[in-house]
Design brief:
alpha/beta, Arc Repressor Mutant, subunit A, 5-stranded parallel β-sheet, 5-stranded mixed β-sheet, 42% helix
């Protein structure tokens, strides 16, 4: 288990830049639960003269404005010399906070899970805005962080709220850790890339989950302990996440995710699978919330000739590896796990494991495009567009699906992403057919690539068909 802060170098550099300003900064931060938002700001604030943190109470029965104000007053009392008062309103709370702030030095204030702080008071965003304008922004070297995992609330009440227009200095969406940062959780341990991939297929780049991995245990032992044990962190995690973030809509959100476990789908396909129409854009709104929360990703194919996105060719895929693993493998066995009668089998023998593992592997690659671009020496070449490509079959042409397509000014890059025990010679024929169906304009070069995990047929490099062959292990470095 890692005992030190890992990754986030570029984000940390931006925070340091803001802290060196002579004027106050307002930061808005979004990200899924467990992604390390509060940990990141606590780490960055170590050099500040004063760091204050306030966290909203999670939604549950009898949690109201009074309870949130009491929690705020208690936190303020514990962290400063402010007296423990009974607060009646948020303007009073923010006035009290401002009264104890020093007039000099660097100050960092974190409002964590801000949507929970707002429970019971629809005017809460306006009070935050007023306090920022009249009080907090008047302190030089002050940074106020508005942070939360309920991204839809932040979008509506802060980012798209005209009252906050022009005020946020930095809007940060904290992503999963990049692969080299994930790799640091095994520093000093001789763990194979194949075993690391098994674990990343379950955890993704979520720091909180990676912290629980024990390098002294095999991948199977780690997965059994965390996922297939009634007291395991990842056995209970799903319901906590969805209830806390989506509350009354949690069941609908879960059903949408379940529909997508076996691969990406269009809005029409999701609607059909659920037996629900998109009247009034209700289904689209939930998909947007799931995307904003970091659980889904919306992939829009783009034209290989023009590099322009085709908004009508949109498919939604599960972006979060843990969510897919839970729905596919943990939830179906939940009752057995609770009764202590579940018998863990080797991971590779789980039903549809190879298919799911392929999807999880694709997720990891698509989440680390910058690493891949640098790995194939395009770091200084403008990439006009990138992402999965999907062309449904028509009466005139067969369909085509490309795992990853990159478009530069002069070339189209077609990448196949393969997870197999053995990656055979036939992969070249698959890619040849995909390139043929793509029918790229003759003014553009077409370059091919293979990103793989498994044992590669030695005839593949010898054939010299692929312009780029990238091992998963290469992206961990």
């Amino acid at each position: 288990m890692a005992k030190f802060f890992i990754g986030r170098e570029s984000e940390e550099a931006e925070f340091k830049r803001l802290s060196n300003k002579s004027t106050a900064s307002l930061i808005v931060c979004q990200g899924r639960r467990r992604i390390g938002k509060s940990t990141f700001f606590r780490h960055c604030a170590k050099g500040a003269d004063l760091f204050l943190s306030f966290e909203g109470l999670a939604p549950r029965d009898k949690i109201n404005k009074k309870a949130q104000l009491e929690a705020f007053a208690t936190a303020l009392n514990l962290q400063t010399k402010a007296p423990k008062l009974t607060l009646d309103s948020w303007p009073q709370a923010f006035d009290l906070l401002d009264s104890v702030l020093p007039t000099t030095g660097t100050i960092v204030i974190l409002f964590d899970e801000i949507s929970w702080m707002a429970i019971g008071d629809p005017d809460f965003p306006g009070y935050v805005k007023a306090a920022w304008d009249a009080r907090f922004s008047q302190h030089p070297n002050l940074i106020l962080v508005l942070c939360g995992s309920v991204s839809s609330w932040i979008e509506k009440n802060i980012l798209k709220n005209t009252g906050f227009a022009g005020r946020p200095t930095w809007h940060l969406k904290l992503p999963p850790l990049a692969l080299p940062a994930c790799n640091q959780f095994w520093t000093g341990k001789a763990v194979s890339a194949a075993e690391k991939l098994k674990l990343l297929a379950v955890t993704g780049g979520v720091p909180r989950y990676l912290e629980e991995l024990d390098p002294a245990q095999s991948a199977e032992q780690n997965v059994e302990r965390l996922c297939f044990n009634s007291s395991g962190l990842l056995f209970n995690e799903f319901n906590l996440i969805f209830h806390d973030i989506f509350t009354k809509r949690a069941d609908t959100c879960r059903d949408i995710m379940a529909v997508l476990t076996d691969g990406a789908k269009t809005l029409a396909e999701i609607s059909s699978a659920l037996g629900k129409n998109n009247s009034g854009g209700s289904l689209s709104a939930i998909l947007e919330d799931l995307e904003s929360a970091g659980f889904l990703h919306k992939d829009a194919s783009f034209s290989p000739d023009t590099a322009k996105t085709m908004p009508r060719k949109v498919r939604y895929r599960i972006f979060d590896n843990y969510i897919r693993f839970y729905l596919k493998f943990i939830e179906p066995a939940a009752e057995q796990i609770k009764k202590g009668i579940y018998q863990m089998s080797p991971i590779e023998t789980l039903q549809a494991w190879d298919t799911i593992m392929g999807l999880q592997f694709e997720n990891l690659i698509l989440s680390n495009l910058r690493l891949l671009i640098e790995r194939i020496n395009l770091g200084n070449v403008p990439v006009l567009n990138a992402g999965p490509y999907y062309q449904p079959a028509t009466s005139k042409a067969p369909g085509s699906q490309i795992d990853l397509m990159l478009r530069t000014k002069s070339a189209v890059y077609v990448f196949e992403i393969k997870f197999r025990k053995s990656v055979g010679f036939s992969v070249m024929d698959e890619v040849r057919e995909k390139v043929k169906r793509l029918n790229v304009d003759s003014s553009l070069s077409v370059r091919t690539g293979l990103i793989y995990q498994g044992e590669l047929d030695p005839k593949i490099p010898e054939a010299d068909y692929f312009d780029h062959i990238v091992r998963f292990e290469d992206l961990l470095k």
